[in-house]
Amino acid sequence: MTKRVAVISAILENPALCQSEFNNTISEYKGIVKGRMGIPFEDEGMSVVSITVIATLNEINGLTGRLGTIEHVTVKTAISKKEMPCP
């Protein structure tokens, strides 16, 4: 099995309604998360979050899928083509 680098981008529309569930879901995957950047757009009532992970495709898809089921959250993922061996 191999790992890849991925960037998961998420737009939270009306963060007050979905931010708690979003953060709880990410914390469940803390072992694969290598970095996170969030930008609040308070005037627009939105937040944009970028999460960098190193994980297997199953783990990446698991996190992306879970985040995508949260109401008011839109998610897209970019996955590297380069594979890294799992330790």
TrEMBL record:
SUPFAM superfamilies: ACT-like. Pfam families: TM1266-like. InterPro entries: Acetolactate_synth/TF_NikR_C (IPR027271), ACT-like_dom_sf (IPR045865), FeFe-hyd_TM1266 (IPR023860). It comes from the Bacteria. This is Putative iron-only hydrogenase system regulator. It comes from Peptostreptococcus russellii. The lineage of its organism: Bacteria, Bacillati, Bacillota, Clostridia, Peptostreptococcales.
